[in-house]
Amino acid sequence: MTITDRWGVEIQTTSEHAARLLEQATTDFVLLRNDPAAVLDAAIEVDPDAPLPRIVRAGLDLFAQTRDAQRAARSRLAEVDALLTRASRREKLHAAAAAAWANGQLDVAARLFDGAVALNPHDILALRMAHDLSFFLGDSKNIRDVIARSRYAWKETDPLFGALQGMYAFGLEETADYRRAEDAARFALRADESDVWATHALAHVLEMEGRTDEGIEFLTGSSAAWEDSFFAVHNWWHLALYLIEEGELGPALALYDGPIRTSASTEWLDLVDAAALLWRLWLLGVDVKQRAAALVGVLEPRIDDALYAFNDLHATMVFCLAEREDLVRAIIAANGHEDGTTNSFVLSASGAELLRGFSELALGDAPGASERLLGARSRSAVIGGSVAQRDVIDQTLIAAVARSADEGLVRALASERTERKPSTAGSVRRLVEANRPSR
Questions:
Q1: Contact assessment for residue 419 and residue 240, using Cβ atoms and an 8 Å cutoff
Q2: How many CB atoms lie within 10 A of CB 128?
Q3: Could you count the other beta carbons within 10 Å of the beta carbon of residue 44?
Q4: Number of structural domains in the chain
Q5: Position 239 in a domain
Q6: 106: left (phi over 0), alpha (psi -120 to 50) or beta
Q7: Is 130 inside a domain boundary?
Q8: HSE-CB for 423 with a 13 A CA cutoff
Q9: What CATH number has the domain bearing residue 57?
Q10: CB of 206 within 8 A of CB of 236?
Q11: What is the pLDDT of residue 283?
Q12: Residues 33-67: pLDDT tens digits?
C-alpha cells in the first residue's frame, strides 16, 4: 500500500511502522546525527518488500567511499531489482541514482536525484543526496540550486524547513553570496541549534569573510550543541583553521590530538580532515611526521580503491608527511587507470596533476610542484570538496614557489591572496617565511 510521510511524499510499504522508521532515518540523515543506517536496517526488517529503505540504505553505504562499501551497495540494489516492478517513479529514480553512484558515475547520480527533486520538491532524501553529491563533484552551483529549485514548494511550518535553510546556506556560501548565506544559516540555527550542517555553513561564511575571532567564538560557544554529531570532527577542523590563520599553531595541534583524532575514526570524512590539518601545519614548519605515520595503517589498505581523487589527494599528503615514498608512488600508480567513471574524468582534468604536485613538493622538487600546481589549480574545483578545503592547493602552491625562491611569483601570489581576503596578510607572510630557503 501507499503511505504518505510527514513531508507529503508517498512511500510504498505495507507497514505504518516501517514508514515511520524511514521518516526517522531521513531526519537523522538530513541532520547528520544518530545512526540512520541502523534505523533503516530496522525498517527493512519490519517490511522487507518496501523498496525505498533498501535503496537509501545502499546510498548510505556509498558515503563510505571504499570498494567494500561499493560492493555492499551493489548487493543491496540487486535485491531491490525484483521489487521495482511495482515501485513508484520516485523509487525508480532513487534506485537508478544509487546504481549510477555504485558504478562510479557520481555526475549521473546527482542528475537523477535532481530529477527526483523536480518530481517532488518535498523529497528531502533526494535533496540531501543531490546536495551531497554536488559537493563531492565540486559543483558549487548545484549545491545551491538543487535547494533553490525546490524552495517554492516549502513553508516555514514544514518539517525540516530549518535544515533546508541550512543546506541552502552552504550553497549560497560556496557561490560567494555571503550575506544571504549567513541569514539562512542563522535562521536554521534558530530553528535547531544542534543543526551541525547549518553551523558548518556559518563557519564557512565567517572564514571566507576573514571574521576569524568571531568564528573562534562561534564554534567554541556552540560546540555543546553539535559535538555529538557524526559530522562534528569537521567543525572542529574549521576551528583549527581559524587558529592557524591567527598563528596559533599549538592550539590547532591540540585540537588534532583532541576531538579531531581522539576517536581514531577510520571514516574518510574524518581522515580527510586529519590529513588536511597536518599538511597545513607542516607547510608552516610544524613536525607532524609521527602523527602522519599513525594514519598510514588506516590509509595504506585503501590505496587500490582509487574511487575518489579528493580522498586520495589527502592520503597522498599523509604518505608524504610520513616519508613513505613507496606509498606515494603506489597511490599515484593506482590513480593512473581510465575506467569511464567520474573519478577518471577528475583525474584527467586536474586530479592526477594535484597528486603529483603535492608529492613533488614533499619529496624536494619545489619547482616541479610549482609548475604542476600552477597548471592544475584553475581546474581544481572538479576534484570536489568546498572552497575552504581546496584552499590547501593555493597554500601548497605558495609554499612551493617560496621554496623555489621565485620572488616575483611569491609577491604575485601573496598579492592575489590578500587582495581576495585582506585578513590573510599575516598568515601569507608566515607561510612564505616558513618555506623560504635559508640564506
A1: no
A2: 24
A3: 20
A4: 2
A5: no
A6: alpha
A7: no
A8: 14
A9: 1.25.40
A10: no
A11: 98
A12: 999 999 999 999 999 999 999 999 999 999 999 99
Crossing angle of the two packed helices 106-119 and 124-136, in degrees rounded to 10: 150
Residue 398, all three cell numbers: 605558495
pLDDT above 90: percentage of residues in the chain:
98
- C-alpha cell belonging to residue 410: 611569491
Phi, psi of 332 (to 5 degrees): -65, -40
Angle, vertex CA 143, rays to CA 142 and CA 149, nearest 5: 60
In a domain, 213, yes or no: no
Q: Is 12 helix (H, G, I), strand (E, B) or coil?
A: strand
* In the block, residue with C-alpha cell 576534484: 383
Average pLDDT over the chain, rounded to an integer: 97
Helix H or strand E encompassing 4: strand 2-4
Q: Please state, in angstroms and rounded to a whole number, the distance separating the CA atoms of residues 12 and 206.
A: 43
Average pLDDT score over residue span 185-209: 98
- Identify the CA nearest to 241 among candidates 253, 228, 224, 257: 253
* Domain membership of residue 367 as a residue range: 264-439
φ and ψ at residue 268, rounded to 5 degrees: -55, -40
Q: Which amino acid, residue 136?
A: F
Q: How many CB atoms lie within 10 A of CB 394?
A: 18
d(CA 30, CA 230): 12
Final residue in a domain of this structure, among 123, 141, 166: 123
pTM exceeds 0.90 for this model:
yes
Does the pLDDT value for residue 439 go beyond 70? no
Using DSSP, how many helices (H) and how many strands (E) does the chain show?
24, 2
Indicate whether 403 belongs to any domain.
yes
- Which grid coordinates belong to 269? 570524512
